[in-house]
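Before the break, one more example. Copy the sequence into your notebook; we will annotate it together after we see the structure.
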Amino acid sequence: MLAVVVNFDKLWMGGGNAANLKFDLPENVAVMDNAAGIEGGAKLWHPRSVRETRQLPHFNQREGAH
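Here is what the structure looks like once it is written out:
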């Protein structure tokens, strides 16, 4: 149900009791430790992330530069 609502390619779960899940997860879902989640979040929100530099190049333009 979550995949339909959020439309993710890959879901990394962590924290709490994620490591204690007792059922098989789909191939596109993985359990990671909290440190990996923090590192990934920091990379995602870094000002020079792939998201800004490649996919949304207009974010790289400096104000006043034409």
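The mean pLDDT is 76. The longest strand covers residues 11-13. Try to locate both features in your own notes.
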